[in-house]
Fold each of these.
Amino acid sequence: MLKLVALFLFLVPSFTTYFADRIQGTAAPGISLWQLLYFFIVLLVVRILAGLPVLFFAISTVSFLALPVVFVGSLIWVVKTLATGDSGQIYAQSKHYVSLLLNMLAVIPLAIAFISQIPFREYELHLFQRTGGVSLREKSLLMATRVINHILFTVIPNVLQVWREEHRTKQPLLLHEVPEDIFVERAKRLKQRIIKSVMQMFDVGLASICFALEYIPLWALEIGALPSPQQIEEHRDGK
Amino acid sequence: MANDKQVKNLVYVGIITAFATLAFVGTTILRIPIPTTGGYFNLGDTFVMIGALLYGPIAGLFVGLIGPTVSDGIGFPQFMLATAVVKAAEGLFVGLIGLSLNRSQSYVKAGAALILGVAILVVGYFVFEALVYPFLAKTAPFFGVTDFNAAIGEMLPNAIQGVLSAIIAFGIWRVLKPKTRSEG
């Protein structure tokens, strides 16, 4: 519980400008000294409070989530600048995306560490072993935590793994192997590629829903069968 | 032994949690930034729309309220307020039409519900970014991320996001919808 409180306290600065206003200075263009400091503090805190495996998991997850945001965002600005010829904001936007990357690199690992420290399993065991009965609210909470755990740690990794295996990308070509008309060919196939992408998203969405809902009726029966406090009272009274 | 009503309630809680978590994941995994406002394009709406179409307005409301809003907390906290209101309204109204679908299973009604959802998404974000946020920014600089012009610039990406989500949602709804008697 203390770990959760500590991790929550370290999350607070990311939602306020209080500390950023007090620690002035720039570490690099777009990166304030406070941001850089906060990033290193977060890594240290996650390492100490959640452990090395969680830190590694958090770093790989944040790379997966943040890098596309930053690179696609920057690319969109480059395309916009090339299209309009207006390069006025490009420097400010570069700084914005560097800053956003650092922000996500700090907030997401902390959020993952926070979730990893919530004692779902202990709570579940506690409710199953309790002799005084389980209220409907506790049963609902138990159901919700089970479903969240199932989706985040079983459904999504499995669906993504299957998707990767079924849609292996071709080996990248070496420069001398690239045909001259590659861009023309790809432009011609753009419509097909878009339709294919939508179909793939449809597949992933449908599979995720089916796997996510798979065990809910079974769990509802299992959790619903836990005696309520009233049933325990009646049993004790011999009714 | 558990009574039927309690089991049904627990199933309902599980379904809302599942769709909210999927909406969270759908919003978090694929984020394409929109240059004008600093917002981002995502496909979390798919799960809000399907949840609402299949399980009604209350499910839609909670799925829209929880999943995408929590996702905004990671990296884009300034949009949490707009997302909470807009996505909850989207889920609620799509679900209200979806409720009548349980009897008829009409494709037209499902399409109408999804178009309404897209309209709520586009208009809702426009209202927040063009009017509400600039107003709030006068007292809280935290909300000073958009203005009228930026909000207009974000309407097209929001519309594309909504339409793409609705197309995927419609396809999934066709597969998962309860069978009518004529379908066996």
Amino acid sequence: MPEILSLTINGARSQVARGTTVAAAMLLAEQPSRISVTGEPRTALCGMGICFECRAVVDGVPHRRTCQILCEQDMAVETNP
Amino acid sequence: MTRTQVLVVGAGPAGIVAATAAAENGRAVIVLDDNVTAGGQIWRSATVGESGPAQRGDTQKQRALQRLQRSGAQVLTGRCVFSADASGTLQTFEETASGSFAEEFRFEQLVIATGARERFLPFPGWTLPGVFGAGGLQALVKGGYPVAGKRVIVAGTGPLLLAVAAHLAEDGAVVSSVLEQAPLAQLAPFAASLWAHPAKLVQGARFRARLWKTAYRTGCWVVEAIAGTDGQKLAAVRMTDGTRTWTEPCDLLACGYHLVPNTELAALLGCKFRGSFVRVDDMQRTSLPNIFCAGEPTGIAGLDAALVQGEIAGLACAGRSNTSLQRRAATEHVFAGRMEKAFTLRPELHSLPLPDTIVCRCEDVPFDSLRGYTGWTDAKLQTRCGMGACQGRICGPAVEHLLGWKPVSVRQPLFPVPLEALCSPDETTKIDNQNELIEEKA
């Protein structure tokens, strides 16, 4: 069994297997990665670091491409406003 | 600053093989990749668990990665290339838990193996959560997003669709339909030509066998992604065969219209192009001395072509050539031509977006606000289309399809770079050196 990590997504605890990308964790938690300039919720589109739709706030740093980041224990992820 | 003889950008099949060939022939090689692990897209590894279903049947990849490791080439992942010049320098940035860092590399020879991305065509509802690229959803599943039990529709065009659908079905998704926009008559000559490529034929048959419960509909395409009652999430897809239109409920839509090459780095360096692709000779040399290009940026031709071209480029970096490889590259080139014809976009796809359909997802620019402009420069200034974080990588190919506008220029930084990275030690050293030089001159 893979190791289970615990992180928070928009304040709620979330548990994922080690190796899960932050984008996948946000989809699993049904949270948008970012809110678009006209207020639409958005989630990852391309999955390979090109489209920037999966940008979120990771440990306080905004605009991180979550499809290119693996989850870590106690990471705090928030929807990019 | 790091010096190397050969610098390879992109650790997909072409880059891996190029690096291996160059290193095995005595060159010092560094491979850079933006992703978490080496492999690129077609050889993307599942990052979760050990040997899940996604890891099966990819011994070719494992062999290539092991050989790369033995070759002595150094692979640096998580490095995003944002600037380079043909005199032999290239800059990357890396984002880590402790901050963002820039690095500079100096090279004698550069191999551009930046691969391709999916082409996305805007249609009503394509920005809804639940709508993904076809390869996009596959990549996210490999990154740990579970699709077991989810109802998925795979749509768009290209040979990737069947591969994606088979992979999703293997992971437990209920793939109800695969919609291929190309009509059967257009696909038939391509399918028939696969007899000359037995490995590709076997692979296709294997994908099809896994999808015995799925309807494979040629000449069909998605016209709308429909949200559920909350308006925030995909609930159904409306599709058409050109005469009849119907709706199927689903949880996820994986939709991509084949591939477009990642040529921004080659364009920034000043490599000459042939149409949308980087021009290379039979040694994979670009128009610039000591800069090579292999794989999809030279023409969308798939895995086998990337492997052959990568090896030619890697050998060329070590001053060697191999005529049998060059013959194989020519065969793959013919295959690429047939593939391009088979998956040509049908004219009806020009009228997919409605006036209020968003074309530029970064800046939420609707289709009707682009009317009245004749090209990128004006449209960028007046509407901000293509001015967002993706720098037009997604809306660019869409607008080229819809309005015929060709990309105008590529400038550094190739990707948005955190300011912090530019102030990181490596950059500071460079700036200090420049200041010293300026002081010396003064």
